[in-house]
């Protein structure tokens, strides 16, 4: 019996400790919908496209759209680990070397005030959150949920059950606690009668913009390396 227990303990440990999978390539879209006079229906609303992030390993290219014309991109920001660099114009950035994008002084990504917001602190009211039942969204995605209430504002958080870790997170603390990824936040302000939803959409493929820019820089690096080798001969 003791021998059986000794064999079972390592097996139980392995089952209970699922290994997180780090996504090495993909794209992330962030957008929000704001519904006015929500109690009368959800027809009076505006959608804001916040950011598109293409990434390879720990390198992120963030495309920030025009506020008035969301289908048009304004700027490209180079982000690596916990640092971001001065954005470049979208048109110029399409054929810009990463070395030029990173020529400015790196800044802490948690202080970035445009596009995607990076946070490293708990959700407001997180310690008083209330667990909700799991739900299915978008046809087949299973989400864990919890809610917070602050005055007349009710907020519901949706965490997708997954082992895959992205280089960007709406809130790492919630992701870690719920062993998943926060992908949606719904908030209703009863006093103002405004319903807001913030949505993160991960994609497995890099967008055409990002693919072109990564490809351009990979070719440029190969060419520079080749020239360096020729000089050293």
TrEMBL record:
It comes from the Bacteria. This is Lipoprotein. It comes from Chryseobacterium pyrolae.
């Amino acid at each position: 019996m003791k021998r059986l227990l000794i064999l079972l303990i390592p097996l139980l440990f392995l089952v209970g400790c699922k290994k997180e999978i780090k996504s090495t390539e993909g794209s992330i879209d962030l957008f929000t919908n704001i519904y006015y006079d929500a109690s009368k229906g959800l027809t009076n609303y505006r959608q804001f496209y916040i950011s598109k992030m293409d990434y390879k390993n720990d390198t992120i290219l963030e495309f920030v759209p025009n506020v008035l014309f969301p289908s048009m991109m304004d700027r490209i920001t180079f982000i690596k680990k916990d640092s971001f660099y001065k954005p470049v114009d979208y048109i110029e950035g399409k054929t810009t070397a990463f070395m030029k994008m990173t020529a400015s002084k790196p800044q802490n990504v948690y202080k970035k005030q445009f596009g995607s917001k990076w946070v490293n602190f708990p959700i407001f009211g997180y310690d008083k959150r209330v667990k909700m039942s799991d739900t299915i969204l978008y046809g087949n995605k299973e989400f864990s949920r919890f809610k917070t209430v602050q005055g007349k504002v009710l907020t519901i958080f949706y965490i997708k059950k997954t082992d895959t870790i992205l280089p960007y997170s709406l809130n790492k603390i919630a992701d870690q606690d719920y062993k998943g990824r926060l992908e949606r936040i719904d908030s209703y302000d009863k006093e103002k009668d405004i319903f807001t939803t913030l949505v993160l959409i991960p994609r497995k493929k890099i967008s055409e913009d990002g693919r072109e820019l990564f490809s351009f820089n990979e070719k440029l690096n190969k060419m520079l390396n080749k020239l360096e080798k020729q000089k050293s001969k």
